[in-house]
UniProtKB/TrEMBL annotation:
Name under which the protein is recorded: Uncharacterized protein
Pfam families: DUF6914
Native source species: Aspergillus turcosus
Source organism superkingdom: Eukaryota
Length: 192
């Protein structure tokens, strides 16, 4: 039976953007599920992270970089390496339903018969597809359309960069710096 959360402090769905040191003008995309976070909360903030990644693999056929889905538990989002920002994008009504949607969101490989999807596939397109699917599932409330979510997250990370958040001595996702967080429901920063 699916567990439906009914209190005001519903679990939250977050879009997270990570630094890509070799590609500084782009980001790694992931989805997080966390308890409700308020400005007065002190770390640690636990989360479950959902994303796809491609890792260099040595097989008998040679080297390849297959995409794979990964779900992992984080004891504290502030310790997740390279996380730049996390944006609250939805309220989770059913964690089980949302996780099932994520697990069923297609992953395309380079040799996939759908060449167009395979060529455009990356962590960003997987997050986009997963959020669009979960928006129609009934497992999340308040989830805006993808274009709006991505635009808000990218604007937020640009603002933080312009403020010098990650320059000389500033930590990325750890140390004394907490992850920059924005709540799209309240339109306020949670951590600055």
């Amino acid at each position: 039976m699916t567990k439906i959360l009914k209190n005001r402090n519903k679990t939250r769905l977050l879009l997270a953007l990570y630094a890509r040191p070799r590609h500084p003008d782009s980001y790694h995309y992931a989805i997080l599920i966390t308890p409700k976070i308020t400005p007065k909360d002190n770390p640690p903030i636990p989360a479950t992270k959902y994303h796809v990644k491609n890792t260099l693999t040595n097989t008998e056929a040679g080297l390849s970089q297959p995409w794979r889905f990964e779900q992992s538990s984080l004891e504290n989002i502030h310790d997740d390496p390279r996380m730049l920002v996390a944006v609250v994008v939805g309220k989770v009504l059913s964690v089980e339903m949302v996780e099932e949607v994520f697990r069923r969101t297609p992953i395309y490989q380079a040799d996939d018969p759908d060449r167009d999807r395979a060529l455009e596939f990356d962590c960003r397109t997987w997050v986009r597809d997963a959020l669009e699917r979960v928006r129609g599932s009934g497992g999340v409330s308040g989830l805006m359309e993808w274009e709006t979510l991505e635009e808000q997250a990218l604007r937020y990370v640009r603002e933080k960069k312009a403020e010098g958040r990650w320059t000389a001595g500033g930590a990325v996702g750890g140390g004394d710096k907490r992850v920059a967080m924005l709540d799209l429901f309240t339109r306020r920063e949670i951590y600055v």
